[in-house]
Known about the structure:
The protein is α/β, with parallel strands linked by helices. It is 47% helix and 8% strand. A six-stranded mixed β-sheet has the order 3-2-1-4-6-5. The longest helix is centred in the N-terminal third of the chain and has 22 residues. It is globular and about 55 Å long. It starts with 16 loop residues before the first helix and ends in a 5-residue tail after the last helix. The structure holds iron/sulfur cluster. The site of iron/sulfur cluster (SF4) has 13 residues, from helix 5.
Amino acid sequence: xxxxxxxxxxxxxxxxxxxxxxxxxxxxxxxxxxxxxxxxxxxxxxxxxxxxxxxxxxxxxxxxxxxxxxxxxxxxxxxxxxxxxxxxxxxxxxxxxxxxxxxxxxxxxxxxxxxxxxxxxxxxxxxxxxxxxxxxxxxxxxxxxxxxxxxxxxxxxxxxxxxxxxxxxxxxxxxxxxxxxxxxxxxxxxxxxxxxxxxxxxxxxxxxxxxxxxxxxxxxxxxxxxxxxxxxxxxxxxxxxxxxxxxxxxxxxxxxxxxxxxxxxxxxxxxxxxxxxxxxxxxxxxxxxxxxxx
Length: 294
Ligand code: SF4
């Protein structure tokens, strides 16, 4: 990957949290100087999750109210997610942009599933690119044209074995493959999950309650969720998948990876909700790692 800033530091997971904070802030300082040259805000991809929240707090330390958040809505969020994001943006006094896949691009999830004739899969998770990435690209282009923009992304190498491989050699700033001429910044690439927890706690940041309830936040449906995540969500919102179940029937294909139909998952849950909830209990760290790809 091409690096635009000379940051003479390799990723070092072993550093202390204060050292990592200092390094992250140094990176953001350089990035913010570029944003000022371009007369663009410093953008943070903000999902309301822990990692993007840490990015937002770091960004504010450098750029204050010149930080702007982008929430890339799929229109399939768990109830309360958008409200949480709005509330946090307001509390932290940063401008929030919410992109919309219908308004800003071509259609919602159902539109794309009908268009392709199948649901997203490991090999092709078109929901991420069509609903989030392309919609946000058009949105930003409308506001800032062809200016060079910098988007902070809360990717961490330690998040999963997949990410360890993907970001093994990654610099902290890389060209944005989806927004030509712009850059993606990974300020917390070397942070661990414990670093994030500690940093959020130091900053009195309360994570969205959906994390502790379901082990995920963001999309209520994701083809990569395990059954237990669906069970927990169904327990709180029994009808939440009904539109997708209709879509499964319409195209005759399963929505969940492993050839699983949401209608069967719902039927299994409704046959014994108490027993299932007693068996699966609260989300474990292991389940939390089996979350969405984006
Ligand atoms: S969380 Fe899952 S369903 Fe939502 S956009 Fe990402 S891959 Fe698609």
